[in-house]
């Protein structure tokens, strides 16, 4: 009975958190899907999003949800910059080169971040109240974050399937040389995709900052979760990432009712390995 | 003056030289074919013309303009369009989306509706399957889509690499008929084929490529009767 009441709080929490995990993973999986680059700077970029909320809200008094707009814009620009400086020159090289390139970006952001912000925890003191539905209490920040995620997922879907630049992204992901032959400037499209992936990561970080304390190193665990989610939802399938995120959220919501919380990563990564063994293209399929 | 002129072009991959000074030109409004056996550098030459591969030396002139070093995506804007070997469709996108991608360039966009009607008329099968993913089409339908996507680009010069490869003879004849139609509409065509006899039979002019160089050229009707060609490529 006690477990049941614990489940009533932890499961809805986990599910709402899962949305935001999905948003972070969407950024990782979009970049992989378009250009076959595993972005190892994903974690620190999430952390930069967290600090974006911190500085905008705690220092400038901007509402965290209004703050998402400048953070998203900066995210796109930062992603384009990272692509141009670090990724473009190794885009046709073997995977190891792009792994090392994005890992360098990862180290640079963490290094600069540590120098400027230290590694001690920061906290965004923001509350959006809570909502009671029967015996279940939902935190306002998490509920809004889930809604924002749905908005971004829907927006991403419409962008990829209904707009011309979105279709260019899908065409370049599908067959870069053919897209180039049709007149698509593929380098620009790759830069844009990296910008969008970075933007999604930063926005997810900006939302997570309203739940938990964080430091410049805090992105790492979300990066790892993004890998698990990417594999769950099918790496290269941004919409599948949302479902992957929800699955992870459910797992994180159920485990604390039965086991120590420290079991969460053990079970998540066991699942990761299992999926890779049994269904390497992900539960929801992915690009070939 | 020739519409597309390739002069002494050399190119290759890494240290491996494939083209050893290829020279050929396309006359406006004509159907020209470039024939030759497997591995003589036909596809390499096309990749070089399109800018997917940089030329090591030599020049490529299109409509009086040096285009040797321009990136591939600018070629479609000029009206120089390639239907690549192996179709290279956007397999995860629908037939209609593939056709939309064909009309990416500014020059093709205003004519989208007209060209769509034109390709649907030419290949009614594509209209029936417009909402289907390109990867689920049969081989023949995929080749039709590859050609149709090229037409959507509103080409001045349309280059088609290995149209007949892996297709049933009846389909090949149907596709070749559509090429004649395109020539009548004023499109300059370059047909690159291993199927030497078929290509020369419908062409105005032909080039024979061997070991990265043009070995022989002339009016297609003459080439097809050439002793050397009959022996080397037609098995006669």
Overview of the molecule:
The complex is a heterodimer of chains A (288) and B (236). Chain A has a single domain (2-118, 131-278), classed as ABC transporter involved in vitamin B12 uptake, BtuC, CATH 1.10.3470. Chain A is 74% helix and 3% strand. Chain A has eleven helices and two strands. By secondary structure, chain B is α/β, with parallel strands linked by helices. Chain B contains ten helices and ten strands. In chain B, the strands form two sheets. A six-stranded mixed β-sheet of chain B has the order 6-7-8-3-9-10, sandwiched between helices. In chain B, helix 3 packs parallel to helix 6 and helix 4 (112-122) runs antiparallel to helix 6. Chain B is globular and about 45 Å long. The N and C termini of chain B lie far apart (35 Å).
Keywords:
A: 288 residues; mainly alpha; ABC transporter involved in vitamin B12 uptake, BtuC; B: 236 residues; alpha/beta; Rossmann fold; four-stranded antiparallel beta sheet; 37% helix
The top-level CATH class of chain A is: Mainly Alpha
Uncertain residue ranges of chain A: none
Total number of beta strands of chain A: 2
Percent in strands of chain B? 25-35%
Q: CATH architecture of chain A, please? A: Orthogonal Bundle
- Cα distance spanning the termini of chain B: 35 Å
- For CATH, the homologous superfamily of the largest domain in chain B is named as P-loop containing nucleotide triphosphate hydrolases
Output the structural class of chain A. Answer: mainly alpha
Structural class, from secondary structure content of chain B? alpha/beta
Strand content of chain A: under 5%
| C-alpha geometry of chain A | globular
From the 3D structure, determine the CATH topology of the largest domain in chain B: Rossmann fold
Gap from first CA to last CA of chain A = 46 Å
**Strand order within the widest beta sheet of chain B:** 6-7-8-3-9-10
CA-atom Rg of chain B in angstroms: 17 Å
Provide the residue-averaged pLDDT of chain A: 93
The total tally of domains of chain B equals 2
Order of helices and strands of chain A: HHHHEEHHHHHHH
Multimerization state: heterodimer
What is the count of structural domains of chain A? 1
Helix content of chain A: over 70%
């Amino acid at each position: 009975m006690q477990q049941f009441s614990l489940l009533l709080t932890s499961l809805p929490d986990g599910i709402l958190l899962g949305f935001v995990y999905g948003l972070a993973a969407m950024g990782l999986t979009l970049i992989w899907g378009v250009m076959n680059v595993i972005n190892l700077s994903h974690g620190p970029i999430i952390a930069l999003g967290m600090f974006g909320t911190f500085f905008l809200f705690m220092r400038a008094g901007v509402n965290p949800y209004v703050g998402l707009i400048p953070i998203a814009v900066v995210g796109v620009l930062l992603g384009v910059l990272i692509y141009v400086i670090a990724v473009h020159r190794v885009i046709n090289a073997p995977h190891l080169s792009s792994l090392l390139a994005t890992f360098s970006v990862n180290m640079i952001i963490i290094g600069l971040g540590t120098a400027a912000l230290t590694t001690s925890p920061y906290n965004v003191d923001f509350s959006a109240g809570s909502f009671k539905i029967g015996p279940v209490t939902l935190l306002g920040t998490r509920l809004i974050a889930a809604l924002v995620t749905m908005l971004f997922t829907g927006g991403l879907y419409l962008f990829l399937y209904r707009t011309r630049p979105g279709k260019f992204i899908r065409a370049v992901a599908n067959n870069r040389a053919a897209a180039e032959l049709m007149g698509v400037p593929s380098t620009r499209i790759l830069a844009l995709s990296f910008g969008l992936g970075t933007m999604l990561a930063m926005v997810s970080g900006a939302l997570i900052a309203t739940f938990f304390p964080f430091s410049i190193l805090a992105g790492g665990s979300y990066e790892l979760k993004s890998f698990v989610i990417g594999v769950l939802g099918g790496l290269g399938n941004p919409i599948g990432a949302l479902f992957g995120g929800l699955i992870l959220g459910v797992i994180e919501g159920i485990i604390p009712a039965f086991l120590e919380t420290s079991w969460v990563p053990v079970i998540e990564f066991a699942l990761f390995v299992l999926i890779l063994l049994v269904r390497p293209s992900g539960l929801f399929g992915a690009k070939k | 003056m020739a519409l597309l002129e390739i002069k002494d072009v050399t190119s290759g991959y890494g240290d491996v030289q494939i083209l050893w000074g290829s020279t050929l030109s396309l006359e406006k409004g004509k159907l020209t074919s470039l024939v030759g056996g497997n591995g003589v550098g036909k596809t390499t030459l096309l990749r070089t013309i399109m800018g997917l591969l940089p030329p090591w030396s030599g020049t490529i002139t299109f409509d009086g303009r040096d285009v040797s070093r321009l990136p591939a995506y600018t070629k479609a804007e000029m009206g120089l369009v390639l239907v690549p070997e192996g179709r290279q469709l956007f397999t995860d996108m629908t037939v209609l989306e593939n056709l939309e991608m064909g009309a990416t360039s500014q020059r093709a966009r205003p004519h989208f509706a007209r060209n769509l009607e034109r390709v649907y008329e030419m290949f009614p099968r594509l209209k029936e399957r417009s909402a289907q993913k390109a990867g689920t089409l049969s081989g023949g339908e995929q080749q039709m889509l590859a050609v149709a996507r090229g037409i959507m680009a509103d080409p001045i010069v349309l280059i088609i690499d290995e149209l007949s490869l892996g297709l049933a003879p009846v389909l090949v004849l149907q596709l070749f008929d559509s090429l004649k139609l395109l020539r009548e509409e004023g499109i300059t065509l370059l047909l690159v084929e291993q199927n030497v006899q078929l290509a020369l039979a419908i062409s105005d002019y032909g080039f024979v490529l061997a070991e990265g160089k043009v070995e022989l050229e002339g009016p297609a009707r003459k080439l097809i009767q050439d002793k050397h060609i009959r022996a080397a490529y037609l098995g006669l």
